[in-house]
Each structure stands twice: as structure tokens, then as C-alpha cells.
Design a protein that fits this description.
heterotrimer; A mainly alpha (275); B mainly alpha (297); C alpha+beta (373); A: 275 residues; mainly alpha; MetI-like fold; 0% strand; globular; B: 297 residues; 2 strands
């Protein structure tokens, strides 16, 4: 019995240390953003909010950085929203079709719809570069949008599929029996029943698009510089805690989005597919 | 007469075919429209990988295996391949040994399971770049590791930890360890706890119980996690780019240079195809293990 | 197959629903094979059989969720074989009720008329009418998860009725309710069905439910129809071994037919003894013929007089089980055949048959029925 208790204690200690390690890099960023010194230093030299102030200045009126940071955030925002809308439409319909279609080749299509999840993103990026140069004349915004659509589509497919699997099929049968045709049944019965999965998929898709670096790296251009690229260029050249302050803001957004997904009890579904 | 019957039969068949329900299949259309460029892009990569390249003319259509030959014989590329495999191997092994006890803890966490899962997934869904930045701070000359080293007198000046293979490995472990823990925990949770009790009841010590019952039963999870982490590590791009800082050449960073700096598309395509081949083989194994696990439970 | 009594009462009327030789194959498996059935106006028909017998598949073909591989389905004189589910006015009551969880009772009940394009005033009127039929006025704004199981079923019934269906299909509609509530809902639904005069098809695996509710019962097995008849017909004159067995416990025995001029016909069952028939068991009966017969447990009595030749089958009481309204005696006949006998428990009845006591199992007049081959 005593042995059992010590083994539990050992495991508990180990797990605690592990999670300190796992959350460590995030905590370090948050803590060093409150550093009062000129460079990122850990442990910090003193507490100060000045880098958040600097961030505000940067956004408000710094002559050289302002347009770029604001542009980057703006680009990432619309890119995220647009690709999320597209991924939700294509992914929800696709997940429904994957579950219901009785045509040969459905299994191959299932692989296709999930492919971007595990396909090396760098190859997705490189392949699209070649594809776009062969097609020619595709504006940057369209390249970025398509790239982000591709990587965020499976997020919706997975969460919606999970919802569809728990959907009581007799609800749809009942609707048809009461005179609702396919389209009406889908809109009035199926869609409201899977809205949790659709919403979780949308959040997850947005997160994927907003934080994507690898595919974006191959598709962006000077005038359209999404936020992760801007952050990359910034931390390559500056070591001040401003980047940490910025990263903390992004962390805050991510964390609140994750809490939102958790509230939807959908974290399990997201976990199953993440990346 | 008989031809009329044949036509009748034919019409009947056609009717049956038309009766196939096309409502659901039609909904594939938007998704296929989105994914078609990806398929097209990959087909193009494969085709380009057989082309010739001339520094002056650029890409020249051809059917040659030279690019693949270079992937395995060109010293820089071969070194990149070896580095990729070495890093992935180290990362995978460390993830397995560090992650296994955590998976055991999660599988026994009861009502704390949700909290542990949330803690596990939070860094996983955070921007890779931000995590990499965290490691830049930790390993940087003014970071906690160096502060500790100097304060303890182990080192007189800041040690160079950034832009080394060690930095890349550390980041990749951090990035990928959840992908080891999740399949392991999933398998461990399905093991009937009565089996452990039975083993103990039959006189096996906790250690023997672990090695003779728990470990063999968790093998599908070990295989799945190992393959997944290896695949993800070998296709990682951000960690070598940000934490390797040009000092660590792996397949992905070499691909980036070939495509964007030397603009040797056929060579970059061949590198891409090799990487995809490696990853797909690992993932096919992963899918196989998963489907077998599902069948046996 | 159709009983003559039905034919005469339905003279001049047209069936509401006709199934003409419908079959359904899933791959190589025949789920339903050449099923034909006519349902007459106001009639309550049950499809009864064990799980996997094809009854649910048949029902889903009538509702239009599955297309038959062969055969035709005719509703109110129109061929609806290829009409999609949402254009057939057959109302289906689901086993799980299938109430839309994101809609109120009003939304659920009004869904049918709304989908069929009725104006909001007409929809509200239909909802009021249907809810009053199931006595659920005042529940309009509740959600399905705020209702009890019985109330949910009433909402489901109201929803089907409001949709203006020309006939009702009930898919194992009562099996989700506990025993007490089930009996009450069965009565209520039957009463409502009779009041509205709406033709109804019930799918069930519960023979008591089928007996209690139906005008006619269709017994299915392995995708085929075994027998169609009134409850009394299928219970007391089964046309196949399967039907005899499925409709209730039957005690089976076989033997040699003999005829003794004065005393009539006997079945010589070997060591257990002989059974006497009132009349020849069938018109072409010949002495010496081998026959199989069955008897329902409630059509048998026990007697301690075992000597009489042809008065019953001799055996030993193995076990007596007291079930309140009756007791069941488990008797092993001489020769080893097990029999069950139901003994009514009247206020004065005493335990007169001791365990291991030798008894005679005596069929009541007309109890012995010839088993079909």
C-alpha cells in the first residue's frame, strides 16, 4: 500500500514537471514581455508594461512599422475569415457527402479530404508555387486564400464528421416523411443538429489559417504579408521584448479561442486531427 | 424481337443508374474544387522532378532520374537527408520515453483528464512560430538556461545554444510530444484495468505487471505514436528555419533553398517527392496500425 | 391468403395500400422476398416477426426510404414505387420518436404542414387540432427534452396526424416505453386509430402487442410472409410450424393415427399414451398416417386419473411455477417430451399436483391442432 502511494507520488511529480516544461516556452514569452530592459532577458530585469505601450505606439504612429504591422494583422484577419467561410461551406458539405454518398470512390475521396492534414506543408507550399506559376496571372490574395482553404478544409471535415456520426438519422427520415425534400431536410434538420461540429470546425479552421507559417511562407508577397510572416521577420532582426508583447497578445487570442472550443466540448475532436 | 428485349433491358439498366441518389455526391463538388489544385500541384511536382535544369535556360522538359540521383549522392543533400533522419530519430525516441509516463498518468487521471488534455493541447494549437520564439528566448544568451549555467559557475560566459541542432531537437520534441502521448493514452485507456489487478493477484510485482501486461498491450499506441512523430519531425520546417538559423540543414530547409534561392525547380521537386514518399510510407503504417487496433477492440 | 370475412366486408371498397410482390435484396442477401399485402380503409395491420425477418425493410419501402428491387407499391390507387419519401403521404411513427430536439412542440407538430406549403394560419390550426387529439394542449412551447417518454410519443403521434397522412406506419412504436405505459399507449393509439378511421401498419416483434391491436396480422420470417390472418386465425390455426411457435408456447408431439370405429380417431404417441380427436383431424385422414400436432398450454388440463385409455398423455410433474393469475406446470411426458400446462388460479384452488406426482395431461375439446408440414 505504501509502495503504491509513493509510486503515485512519483508519477504526480513527473507529470507536474512535464507540464511545466510543456507550458514553459509560452510562460517565458509572457513573462519576458513585462521586462523593463531593452532586450529579451530571462529572468526579467524588472516589471514594466512599457513594451505593450511601445506596441500601441507601433500600431498608432511609428512611421516605419505601422503600416506593416497593421497590414499584416489586417491581411491575416481577412484571410482567416475568408478561408474559414470557404472551408466551412466546402467542409460541411463534403463531410455530409462522405458519410452519405453511396458511389464508388468515396473512400479515395475521404483520403483526399483529409490529405492536407498530414501532407508535409512545405510540399503543399512548393507545389502550389509551381502550380500558380504554371497557371499564371493569379493575384497574391487568391494564392494565399486557396492555400489557406486547402489547409483549413480538413479541420471542418473532421469536426463535422464527428458530429454527423452522433446524429440520429431517424430525424432526417422523419423530416422527409413529413414532406421536407432533401434541401429542406438538410437546412432545417441536419444543419441545426450538427451546428456544434460546424462551429468547432470554423474556430479550428480560423486558428489554422491565422497561425499558418509554412504554406504562407511560399505564397506571400511584399504587399500581402500575413501576421506570422511579419512576426518572423521581426524576431529575425529585433531582440527587444516588443515581439514578446505581440506574441503574448496572440497567445491570449489563441487561449480564448481554445477555451471557446473547450466550452463546445469539441476539444477531443480537434485533438484527433490537429496539425 | 430479341433486340427489342435487349433494348428494354438496357433501358431498365439505365433507369436504375439514373436512380442512383446524386444529392449527396453532388455535395463533394466545392471540396473537390478546393483540393484539385493540391492534387494538380503534386502531379506537377512529380512531372517536374524528371525534368532537366540548366542554370541559363532554367527548366528543360526531359525524362531523367538525375534529380533523384542527386538527392542521395550530392554531399549537401545527402547530409541534409541524414540530418533529417537523425533529428527525427532522436526526437521520436525522446518523445516515446518522456511521453509514456505522461500517457499512463492521463489514462489514470479520472476527473483531471480534461484538464491534462487541455494543458496538452494548448501548446499544440499555438502558433508554431510563437513556440519557436519561446525556445529562442529560453536558449538565447540572456535566457534562463544560460543564466542558470553562469550563476552555478558551470560556464563563465553565455554558451551558444541557439542555432544548433540541439535547439532544433529541443523544439521538435516540445512540438511533437503531444502526438506521441495522444495515441498512447488512447490505447492505455482501453486496457481493461482488471488485467493489471489479475496479474498482481497472480503474484506479479508492479514492475513485472508493467513489462508483461501493460507494455505489450500498449504496443499499437507505441507504433502509432512513433510513426506519427517521425513523420511530423521529418517534415517540420519552422523549427530548423528559426532555431537552426542556417546552421542546421535538413531536407525541408534545403528544399526551401533549392526552390527559392537557386530556383532549381526539378531538383526541389525531386526532394519534395522523396519527402512525401517518406512521410506517406510512415503514415500508411500509422493508418494500418490504427485500423488494426480498431478491428481488434 | 386473405380471410373470407375480410373479403365480404371490404366488398366494393378499394385498398388504401397494395404491395405487389415487392422484394428487396441487399447485395446477395434477400431482405424481403415477394411480399404482397392489401391494407383496407380503417384497417389495422401488424407486420410481426423476429428481428431480421424483413418487416422493418418492408415498412421503410412503404415510407420510401428504401426502393424495392422488384414489385410495385400502390397507395390510394397510385403507383408510388418511384415517388420520393417526401412526396408520399404516409405518416411514420418512429421507435425513437425522432422529435426534432432544436424545435418546440409547436415547431415539431407544425413541421409537416409547413413543409407541404400551408399558410401559417392553417399550420397553427392543424397544430391545435393534432395536439387536442393527443390531449397535449398547453405544451406548445416545450422542447422535446422537457417531456416525459409518454408525452414525447404523443407529440410524435400529433406530428404525424398534423401532416395529413392518408395512412399511418408505426415502427416498433411502443418498445421504448415501460410495460405499464406501453399498454396504455397501445390502447390510446388503437382508440385514436379507430376514431379517425385511418389505415395503419404496425411493425413489431411482440406478438401480444400484435394480437391486442390488430385487425389482421402478417407474420414474416426470413423475408417472406408466413401467414396473414386475424389474430384468432394466426394464433389458433397457424399455417406453418414457424407461426405456431412464434405466436406462443406450443407443446408438440407426434404419433400414429388410428381409427376405432365406435370411439373415433386417436393419435398413438407411444409411451405417453393416446390423444382422442373429436372429429377426423383433417378431411383426408387415413389410419396409420404419421401426424404432428400441437397444443397451447392454456388449452390443457391436468388430471390425477391416469388410467383411462385415450383420456390424456401420462407424465410426471417436474416443477410448478406460481405466476399470480395462473400457475405453470412443467410436465415430462413418459418418453421424455417436455410439456407446459397453464393452470388457472381460482380462489379455492389448492396445490393438488405434487412434484414428481404422476399426472395425465388432458387436452380440452378442440385443443389439438394438426401441425402443417
Amino acid at each position: 500500500m505504501k509502495l503504491h502511494v509513493t509510486r503515485r507520488g512519483l508519477l504526480l511529480t513527473y507529470v507536474t514537471l512535464f507540464f511545466i516544461y510543456l507550458e514553459g516556452p509560452l510562460a517565458v514569452i509572457v513573462l519576458s514581455s513585462f521586462n523593463s530592459g531593452q532586450i529579451v532577458r530571462f529572468p526579467p530585469e524588472g516589471f514594466s508594461l512599457k513594451w505593450y505601450g511601445a506596441l500601441m505606439d507601433l500600431v498608432r504612429n511609428a512611421p516605419d512599422m505601422k503600416p506593416e504591422l497593421l497590414n499584416a494583422v489586417y491581411t491575416s484577419l481577412w484571410l482567416g475569415v475568408a478561408s474559414t467561410i470557404g472551408a466551412v461551406i466546402a467542409g460541411t458539405l463534403g463531410a455530409y457527402a462522405l458519410q452519405r454518398a453511396k458511389i464508388p470512390g468515396t473512400n479515395i475521396l475521404r483520403q483526399l479530404f483529409l490529405l492536407p492534414l498530414l501532407f508535409p506543408q512545405i510540399v503543399t507550399g512548393i507545389g502550389l508555387v509551381l502550380w500558380f506559376s504554371a497557371v499564371g496571372g493569379v493575384p497574391t490574395w487568391m494564392r494565399l486564400l486557396l492555400g489557406h482553404l486547402i489547409i483549413s478544409l480538413p479541420c471542418v471535415v473532421v469536426t463535422v464528421t464527428a458530429s454527423l456520426e452522433t446524429l440520429d438519422r431517424s430525424l432526417e427520415d422523419a423530416a422527409m416523411n413529413l414532406g421536407a425534400n432533401r434541401v429542406k431536410t438538410f437546412l432545417f434538420i441536419t444543419l441545426p443538429s450538427i451546428q456544434g461540429g460546424v462551429l468547432a470546425g470554423a474556430i479550428f479552421a480560423w486558428l489554422t489559417s491565422f497561425s499558418n507559417f509554412t504554406v504562407t511562407y511560399f505564397l506571400f508577397s511584399g504587399e500581402m504579408n500575413p501576421f506570422p510572416l511579419w512576426l518572423y521577420q521581426y524576431i529575425e532582426y529585433y531582440i527587444d521584448p516588443g515581439a514578446a508583447a505581440l506574441a503574448t497578445c496572440v497567445l491570449l487570442i489563441t487561449l480564448s479561442v481554445l477555451l471557446m472550443i473547450n466550452r463546445l466540448q469539441a476539444l477531443g475532436r480537434v485533438v484527433a486531427v490537429s496539425k | 424481337m430479341s433486340s427489342a428485349v435487349a433494348i428494354g433491358v438496357g433501358v431498365k439498366h439505365l433507369k436504375k443508374h439514373l436512380q442512383t441518389d446524386w444529392f449527396a455526391p453532388a455535395l463533394f463538388a466545392p471540396g473537390i474544387l478546393v483540393l484539385l489544385p493540391l492534387v494538380g500541384a503534386f502531379v506537377m511536382l512529380v512531372r517536374y522532378s524528371f525534368n532537366d535544369w540548366d542554370p541559363m535556360l532554367g527548366m528543360v522538359p526531359a525524362w531523367t532520374l538525375e534529380n533523384y540521383y542527386y538527392v542521395f549522392t550530392d554531399p549537401a543533400q545527402f547530409k541534409g537527408l541524414v540530418t533529417t533522419l537523425r533529428i527525427s530519430l532522436v526526437v521520436t525516441v525522446v518523445c516515446l520515453f518522456v511521453g509514456y509516463p505522461v500517457a499512463v498518468a492521463i489514462s489514470q487521471a479520472g476527473r483531471y483528464r480534461g484538464l491534462l488534455m487541455f494543458l496538452l493541447v494548448t501548446p499544440m494549437l499555438t502558433d508554431v512560430l510563437i513556440r519557436a520564439y519561446g525556445w529562442m528566448v529560453i536558449l538565447g544568451p540572456n535566457g534562463p538556461v544560460n543564466s542558470l549555467l553562469m550563476a552555478s559557475g558551470l560556464s563563465s560566459g553565455p554558451a551558444r545554444l541557439m542555432y544548433t541542432e540541439l535547439a532544433v531537437v529541443l523544439e521538435l520534441i516540445h512540438e511533437n510530444i503531444p502526438f506521441m502521448i495522444l495515441p498512447l493514452a488512447a490505447v492505455l485507456e482501453r486496457i481493461n484495468p482488471a488485467l493489471n489487478d489479475a496479474a498482481m493477484n497472480l503474484g506479479a510485482s508492479p514492475a513485472r505487471t508493467f513489462f508483461h501486461v501493460t507494455l505489450p498491450l500498449s504496443r499499437p499506441g507505441i507504433i502509432a505514436g512513433t510513426l506519427l512523430v517521425f513523420a511530423l519531425s521529418s517534415s517540420a520546417f519552422v523549427a530548423p528555419l528559426v532555431l537552426g538559423g542556417g546552421n542546421v540543414s535538413v531536407m525541408t530547409t534545403l528544399m526551401q533553398q533549392t526552390m527559392l534561392t537557386t530556383l532549381n525547380w526539378p531538383q526541389g521537386s525531386a526532394q519534395s517527392v522523396v519527402l512525401v514518399g517518406l512521410v506517406l510510407v510512415l503514415l500508411a503504417g500509422y493508418g494500418w496500425v490504427l485500423s488494426r487496433g480498431r478491428r481488434t477492440t | 391468403m386473405k380471410p373470407p370475412s375480410q373479403e365480404s366486408t371490404q366488398a366494393g371498397k378499394k385498398p388504401v395500400l397494395e404491395l405487389k410482390d415487392i422484394s428487396k435484396a441487399f447485395g446477395q442477401m434477400n431482405a424481403v422476398e415477394r411480399v404482397s399485402l392489401e391494407v383496407w380503409p380503417g384497417e389495422f395491420v401488424s407486420l410481426l416477426g423476429p428481428s431480421g425477418c424483413g418487416k422493418t425493410t418492408t415498412l421503410r419501402m412503404i415510407a420510401g426510404f428504401i426502393a424495392p428491387t422488384e414489385g410495385r407499391i400502390i397507395l390510394g390507387g397510385n403507383d408510388i414505387t418511384n415517388v420520393p419519401a417526401y412526396r408520399r403521404d404516409v405518416g411514420l411513427l418512429f421507435q425513437s420518436y425522432a422529435l426534432f430536439p432544436h424545435m418546440t412542440v409547436r415547431g415539431n407538430v407544425g413541421f409537416g404542414p409547413k413543409m407541404r406549403g400551408e399558410k401559417s394560419g392553417a399550420v397553427a390550426e392543424k397544430v391545435r387540432w393534432a395536439l387536442s387529439l393527443v390531449k397535449l394542449e398547453g405544451f406548445e412551447d416545450r422542447r422535446p427534452n422537457e417531456l416525459s417518454g409518454g408525452q414525447q410519443q404523443r407529440v410524435a403521434i400529433a406530428r404525424v396526424l398534423a401532416s395529413g397522412a392518408s395512412m399511418l406506419l408505426l415502427d416498433e412504436a411502443f418498445s421504448n416505453l415501460d410495460a405499464k405505459l406501453r399498454g396504455r399507449m397501445q390502447e390510446e393509439v388503437r382508440e385514436l386509430q379507430l376514431r379517425l378511421g385511418i389505415a395503419t401498419v404496425l411493425v413489431t416483434h411482440d406478438q401480444e402487442e400484435a394480437l391486442a391491436m390488430s385487425d389482421r396480422i402478417v407474420i414474416m420470417n426470413g423475408g417472406k410472409v408466413e401467414q396473414i390472418g386475424t389474430p384468432k386465425q394466426v394464433y389458433s390455426s397457424p399455417e406453418s410450424l414457424f407461426v405456431a411457435d412464434f405466436m406462443g408456447r406450443c407443446n408438440r408431439i407426434e404419433g400414429q393415427l388410428t381409427h376405432d370405429g365406435a370411439k373415433g380417431w386417436f393419435l398413438d404417441c407411444g409411451p405417453a399414451g393416446m390423444i382422442r380427436f373429436e372429429a377426423p383431424p383433417h378431411p383426408e385422414a387415413r389410419p396409420g398416417e404419421h401426424c404432428r400436432v400441437f397444443m397451447r398450454p392454456e388449452h390443457l388440463t391436468l388430471s390425477q386419473r391416469t388410467g383411462d385409455h385415450g383420456q390424456g398423455l401420462r407424465g410426471e410433474v417436474e416443477r410448478l411455477v406460481y405466476l399470480g393469475s395462473r400457475s405453470v406446470a412443467y410436465v415430462i411426458l413418459d418418453g421424455g417430451i417436455p410439456f407446459q400446462v397453464h393452470l388457472p388460479n381460482t380462489p379455492g384452488s389448492k396445490d393438488e399436483f405434487p412434484i414428481n406426482g404422476v399426472v395425465a395431461v388432458v387436452p380440452q375439446p378442440g385443443a389439438v391442432t394438426l401441425l402443417p408440414d
